[in-house]
Design a protein that fits this description.
Blueprint (H helix, E strand, L loop, with lengths): L1 H28 L1 H10 L8 E5 L1 H6 L2 H6 L4 E3 L7 H14 L5 E6 L16 H7 L3 H6 L2 H4 L1 H12 L1 H5 L1 E3 L2 E3 L23 H12 L3 E6 L13 E5 L5 E6 L3 H7 L6 E3 L2 E2 L1 H20 L4 H6 L1
Parallel strand pairs: 1-2, 1-3, 3-6, 6-8
Antiparallel strand pairs: 4-5, 7-8, 9-10
Length: 301
Amino acid sequence: MTKFLKKCFWFLTVIVAVNILYLLVLFCFSPSFKKIYEISNFRRENFDLIVLGNSMALDGIDAEYLSSKGLSTYNLAVAGDHVSTSLLLLEDYLKKNNKPKMVVVGLSSAIGRSYLNPVAYVNPEVEFFYHPSLFSNISTPPLLNFQWLAVDLVKILISKDHRNAKIVKGQWQTQKVIPDQSSYKNGVVKSIDYRDQYLQKIVEICSNQRIRLVLIELPGANSNRNSLPFEYLVKLNDKSTHKVYNLNNYEVSSRMLNSSSDWLAIDHLNQNGGRKITVYILDHILKSELNTPLMSEKKTK
């Protein structure tokens, strides 16, 4: 019996040690893991603009460029995010930091309804740092909970492109190029449903705190773009309306992006493509928004 207990003890010790070692490796070598740790520890930050969204916003919105133009920015977007996680990140940021002048939500309808999925799902990395739980770490140890990050670590080990990739002010920057060889399909435009309770809550928080909220549909591959106008009003969950800027319009995005040089994967921009759309966002959206009074400001005049 004593030998059995000793074997169990050493087995558990090895399991715990391996998981702790895996976490240390992630802290040292996984840019996304380190980013979420860092933003969970933000205190008294004073950014003018924060970005929310999933991997399309993570790759596509260049916070470094916006900051260089006098609009201090951090990209809080996280790969695999659902809008409910963006809400969590926004609420936590506002509790611990100075409120920004503007929040940009990078929408990803080009790739379907993953971000605005009616069924909310959690991001394991965000949950690990924002809702730490000993029970969760025991029931789903890091080796299982973050197993896909092991694949990323292997890519970093064997791929120069991945080793040279970096996160700058929250944006994933890589020079890797995989051309978009798809073709635009000018068919019937599918309606996009923005009546999401979590998006509604983001709208309400920004309205109550007098933070300007900008919703931007980010560009996908040629085959996933649409013919909706550059600006249109959408109906939200409470039946109110909000403007959406549509960079996924085929004509608009085609003027900005080069199919041969601006993509790192299907529907995901590399550093060059991200810089191009960020320049366009600043010149054609943010400057106009910053010079337009909020509804609450209009009412007081």
